[in-house]
Design brief:
Blueprint (H helix, E strand, L loop, with lengths): L2 E4 L12 H8 L4 E5 L10 H5 L3 E3 L1 H7 L2 E3 L6 H4 L7 E4 L8 H7 L4 E4 L14 H20 L7 E3 L2 E3 L3 E5 L3 H12 L3 E5 L6 H6 L3 E3 L19 H15 L4 E4 L14 H6 L5 E4 L15 E5 L2 E5 L8 H19 L13 H6 E3 L1
Parallel strand pairs: 1-2, 1-4, 2-3, 4-5, 5-6, 9-10, 9-12, 10-11, 12-13, 13-15
Antiparallel strand pairs: 6-16, 7-8, 14-15
Helix pairs in contact: 1-11, 6-7, 6-11
Amino acid sequence: MFTLGIVAGQEDPRIAIVPETIDKFLKLTPTILVEKGAGSKAYYSDDAISAKAKVVSREEVLSSSDLILSPTPPSVSDLDKIRKGSSVLSMFAPYQDASVIETLKSRGIHAYSSDMIPRSTLAQSMDVLSSMASLAGYKAVLLAAQKLPRYFPMLMTASGTIKPAKALILGAGVAGLQAIATAKRLGAVVEVFDTRKAVKEEVQSLGAKFVEVEGARDDKAAGGYAVEQTEEFLNRQRQLIQDKAAKSDVIICTAQIRGKKAPILISADTTQRMRPGSVIIDLASSTGGNCEATKDKETIQLNGVTIVGNSYLANDVAVDASYLLSNNYLNLIKLLVNKEGNLMHDANNEILQSALITK
């Protein structure tokens, strides 16, 4: 049997185990160590966890566990406390910073990066990126509605008729689709851009208008991710987006390319053409942002337009984010545990092989 350890993430309110999932984890291993206070920011108290798992110090979790779960990667000082040969499951994002692989390898740690899991039907229950993107897309629209000095739905009153807000969604991945659904529920008129023609029917099924730019590169072999487009295509796309943006009250930016800087789709000139009071929520801010003026983890005002750079909005729904994260991790760990109840990496398992970044 193995010891499972749960630690808090750095500047992250989520926890990788919740009371609803503890019994499921206990079926895999009877020994679970949880860092004291790890769930407090997600409103999960130690008392709610301690009935079935042992609540201890962070140092004890790190030094005594065979498999450690963390929402965000442990710090370098934390890695020094982990036993050589132990495994860590987190979101290391090696495609953004490849140096993390050598850092882990030098300490003899088996590292599984949950953001490297294939975006396939088979791995859907383990897909952390999709789980968090759905929450972020939902929260992005609510945040936009809060900051917009206008009404979202059409309102007919004795004092006059208020027109519905116009929302523009850039990118129709998981976050974008959830943003579309939420904006429609709030009564906005929604238009959507995406280079992937395959999402057109999904967008239309949610009641939004799909704005298509001809000449996009084929993305069938990209595993559900968007692919980098030619500069000529991007220029035509930017021009069309500029025209649409000038008439929009809200823009939700979700377009990202794995391992590359997010494409600039809203230039500074575009924001100047937008109506004062308009709102841009940029979920791609951590990789540069789709809006040229975006500043990661900041909210700024530019020509009367509010621009929010925040790729971490799922953390604002920490209770549900923790629940989904916990289930994602649980389903991946099931692939690691053999019939004898021991940790065993299966080199023939495509999901595990994709997630494993050091061994």
